Amino acid sequence: MIGMKALGPLRPARRLAAVGAGALAMASLGFVGLPADAASTTPGDFSSVVAPNPLAYTVDDCTVEVGIVYDWTPAPDYHHIGGVRVNCATTHSVIDATVALYYQDPSTSQWVQYGDGSYGVRYDSAGTGYAIPDSILRTTPYCVGELRGNYWMVGATVRTERTGGTVYSHAFTDPGAGC
Fold first, then answer.
1. For the chain, what percent of residues have pLDDT higher than 90?
2. What is the Cβ-side half-sphere exposure of residue 105, based on CA atoms within 13 angstroms?
3. CA atoms within 13 A on the CB side of 14
4. Whole-structure pTM over 0.90, yes or no?
5. In the chain, which ranges are E strands?
6. What is the pLDDT of residue 108?
């Protein structure tokens, strides 16, 4: 995609239906990037419980971080939350982002969006900043019930007035905890 590049070694995109479950723990749709330095155990921030998280990409002149967000509810009752943070080198007339959670259906190996995505837009802005929790656009916190033990990842589409791109976190195995 024009204007999108990973901040790490590039790997070819793969059709996830053909990738085995073991490889999914290390693969994502699209390009694989390096983890950002922002992960923590602060509620609303990118979680340090899973690694590498978040992954950082470049879309236009913007750094896009996508990953799992640490829940306000402690284990073992935590929710599944995905997030994206966008910060650009220059001011853009528009920056918009959509973020969603995805799980792998074990019977088909297909990735399925879970629940609704979240959408955010900023006008005449250089991004969201780094204040926690307001800088991360988050999905709704979901209790995923019987899907807890599946592979999960976060996808985000980010656009400026010049270009856009869709990026994904690593796929993580859920330990089967949480609500």
1. 62
2. 8
3. 16
4. no
5. 4-6, 55-59, 62-68, 82-104, 111-127, 137-138, 151-160, 164-168, 172-173
6. 96
* Length reported for the chain: 179
The residues pairing with 92 across neighbouring beta strands, listed in sequence order, are: 125
Helix (H) or strand (E) holding 21: helix 21-24
Tokens 């007339």 appear where? 93
Q: What distance lies between CA 37 and its chain's CA centroid?
A: 15
Q: Locate the domains of the chain by residue range.
A: 4-173
For residue 23, give the H/E element and its range.
helix 21-24
Summarised one tens digit per residue, pLDDT across range 93-107 is 999 999 999 999 999
The DSSP code for 71 is P
**Can the peptide bond before residue 43 be classed as cis, meaning omega within 30 degrees of 0?**
no
Mean pLDDT, 10 residues at a time, the chain of 179 residues: 32 29 29 43 90 96 97 87 98 98 96 97 96 93 90 97 98 82
Q: Extract the tokens encoding 109.
A: 């190996």
